[in-house]
């Protein structure tokens, strides 16, 4: 059911530094920062020929990234995002298979302006999974 890998998200302690690493050292194209208060993050996207890397920096008091950075001060892989055609059908399939959908289970608008859901890492091989309807 899942389609393409949309992006891999890496949490960083400092978005400017992360941007410089990807833009200057690795020579990739990096977008302008975008604040997403609803998700408690500021993001930039690194555009690669076959996928994207999303760099995440904590935004606000109760950012989900803050605790992650506390445990991983240098940053680290935070989630992977897979594309789906129909996010409600995908959600119902996850629930029918006993997987946990985070939050209230209703899709939110993600960084690309499209509906997203997050799935519990303990149900997916220890990895936080984002589903994005494309
Ligand atoms: Co993401």
Architecture overview:
The chain has 134 residues and is an alpha+beta fold. It has one domain (5-133): Roll (2,3-Dihydroxybiphenyl 1,2-Dioxygenase, domain 1), CATH 3.10.180. The chain is 22% helix and 35% strand. It contains three helices and nine strands, in the order βαββββαβαβββ. Strands 1, 2, 3, 4, 5, 6, 7, 8 and 9 form a nine-stranded mixed sheet that branches. Strand 7 and strand 8 form a beta hairpin. The chain starts with a strand and ends with a strand. It binds cobalt (II) ion. Cobalt (II) ion binds next to strand 1 and strand 6. Cobalt (II) ion is lined by residues 7, 9, 54, 79, 81, 130.
**Quaternary structure type:** single chain
Measured by DSSP, the beta-strand proportion falls in 35-45%
Helix content: 10-25%
Mean of residue pLDDT?
96
CATH architecture: Roll
Radius of gyration: 15 Å
The major pleated sheet works out as:
9 strands, mixed
Q: How many discrete structural domains?
A: 1
Q: Helix segment count?
A: 3
Q: In CATH's first tier, which class applies? A: Alpha Beta
Total strands: the figure is 9
Give me the CATH fold name.
2,3-Dihydroxybiphenyl 1,2-Dioxygenase, domain 1
Ligand inventory reads: cobalt (II) ion
Order of helices and strands: EHEEEEHEHEEE
């Amino acid at each position: 059911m899942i389609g393409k890998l949309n992006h891999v998200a890496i949490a960083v302690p400092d978005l400017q530094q992360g941007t410089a690493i990807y833009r200057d050292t690795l020579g990739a194209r990096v977008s302008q920062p975008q604040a997403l208060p609803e998700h408690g993050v500021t993001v930039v996207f690194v555009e690669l020929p076959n996928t994207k890397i999303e760099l995440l920096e904590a935004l606000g008091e109760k950012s989900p990234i803050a605790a992650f950075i506390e445990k991983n001060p240098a940053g680290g892989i935070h989630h992977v995002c897979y594309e789906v055609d129909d996010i409600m059908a995908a959600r119902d399939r996850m629930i029918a298979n006993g997987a946990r959908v985070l939050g209230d289970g209703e899709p939110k608008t993600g960084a690309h302006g499209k509906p997203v859901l997050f799935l519990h890492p303990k149900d997916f091989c220890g990895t936080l999974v984002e589903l994005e309807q494309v």
